[in-house]
């Protein structure tokens, strides 16, 4: 259900550190509605790859961390090798899948249709 918890946690951490609000992010990425960015923040999806460089710019984040973190979130089986070869030498802040403080997203509210 929440496939993108690593990227979601990283995104929320970077937004807090950079003091960037969801609305500012929506504006800077030229989205018209909050649904996409909110979905990334909730861990329900991840941004499309073509948005990553602009996202890194807005968050004042290392683009390599953003892109490699996105790949780890997409393909968790590559986490160990990507951390060893790319993220660890760069002292990346991208969360590990074994971190206990990953932010659990809020569940969607279910409303009966009757």
What does this structure look like?
It is a single chain. This protein is globular. The mean pLDDT is about 85. Helix 1 (about 5-20) packs antiparallel against helix 5. It has about 110 residues and is mainly α. Helix content is about 50%, strand content about 0%. It has one domain: 434 Repressor (Amino-terminal Domain). The longest helix is centred in the first third of the chain and has 14 residues, at about 5-20. The two termini are about 25 Å apart. It has helices spanning about 5-20, 20-30, 35-40, 50-60, 65-75, 80-85.
CATH architecture level-2 label: Orthogonal Bundle
CATH superfamily: lambda repressor-like DNA-binding domains
Number of strands: 0
Question: Helical element count?
Answer: 6
- Structure class: mainly alpha
The global form is globular
**Assigned CATH class:** Mainly Alpha
Q: Describe the sheet with the most strands.
A: none
Oligomer: single chain
- Proportion of residues in extended strands: under 5%
- CATH topology, anyone? 434 Repressor (Amino-terminal Domain)
Radius of gyration: 14 Å
Number of domains: 1
What is the CA–CA distance across the termini? Answer: 25 Å
* N-to-C series of helices and strands: HHHHHH
Q: Helical proportion?
A: 40-55%
In the predicted model, the low-confidence regions spanning at least 5 consecutive residues are none
Name the average pLDDT. 87
